[in-house]
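for the writeup, i need someone to sanity check this before i put it in the appendix. the sequnce is what the collaborator sent (i think, or maybe the updated version? ugh). structure was predicted straight from it, no edits. if anything looks off just tell me and ill rerun, i have time this weekend
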Amino acid sequence: MPLELFDPTGEPTPTGYAAAPRLTSIEGLKVGLFSNGKVNADKLLRYTAEVFEREAGCKIVIDSGKRNASRIAEPQVLERIANDVDFLITAVGD
């Protein structure tokens, strides 16, 4: 079997996706929380959410996550997040 080498310094392949525009303010926005399912991720999210609620008047409208960190998020959960929140906070525990 021949050995095939790849040049890691090449240009990345465009994906067709772009970063979301930067928020100019977070005052009063709807926030989603999404945990990866690992130990303590939910605690970190809840603590962070309290700061956003207290300091910026944000409202937590989705508190969701995965039960298993190695599995992908369900498409319907991602769609709900995309439709119902202004921004999302996610956390990785351990």
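The chain has a mean pLDDT of 88. The longest helix spans residues 41-56.
thx in advance!!
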